Amino acid sequence: MSRHLYDHPMLTGPHGNPNYGGINSDFNCVHCRAYVTANPLVCGVHNRNHCPFCLWSRHMDLYAAGDRLSACRGAMRPIGLTLKQSRKKYGANQGELMLIHGCSDCGAVSINRIAADDDNDAIYRLFEASFNLDAQARAWLDASPVKLLAPADAWLVERRLWGGRLPA
Ligand SMILES: [Zn+2]
Ligand SMILES: [Zn+2]
User: If we measure between CA atoms, which residue out of 118, 96, 104, 147 comes closest to residue 48?
Assistant: First the structure.
């Protein structure tokens, strides 16, 4: 990675850690400022890229999850849930539940794995909020191949998040 990226103010860590914002390094949430650990033993995923509390992320990846090649670094807003489309081998509704993020700087849409320490209630609130998307997020989605889950998919979301039990 080139030196100039480290000079970006949003990449300057609290202790001047030059790897701040790099692969598998802890970070402070761009939205709620919470301290977020990227330790795979805690969050259960590699390439942790979003906050487990408010679910916001940053535009880090260019071609593939974890490549950290994007120069954008914009704040990515969680806008809804989708299913990762696998090869239809197991039929519809069998894909992994994923978060959809839209970049508030450049409008890029990406889908991201839910981490083990993500707040299930926050994910469900995001799901409900996505039924009434604002025009900006709707435009981001319309320009991407990602399909938003609908209210009719609530049973599926509940099952994925709580193993079939309804939220309290
Ligand atoms: Zn946050
Ligand atoms: Zn961006």
Answer: 118
Residue numbers of the domain that contains 146:
3-162
pLDDT digits (tens, 9 = 90+) for 80-139: 999 987 666 555 567 899 999 999 999 999 999 999 889 999 999 999 999 999 999 999
CA pair distance 142, 148, nearest whole angstrom: 10
Distance from residue 107's CA to the centre of ligand 2 (Å)? 6
| 168 belongs to a structural domain | no
> How confident is the model over 24-36, as pLDDT tens digits?
678 999 999 999 9
Q: How far is the CA of 86 from the centre of ligand 1 (A)?
A: 29
Place of tokens 């900006």: 136
Other CB atoms closer than 10 Å to residue 116's CB: what's the count? Answer: 12
Going from the Cα of 54 to the center of ligand 1, the distance in angstroms, rounded, reads: 4
Contact partners, residue 113, CB within 8 Å, separation at least 6:
45, 65, 96, 98, 99
Give domain status of residue 79, yes or no: yes
Query: Measured in angstroms, how far is the CA atom of residue 73 from the centroid of ligand 2?
Result: 6
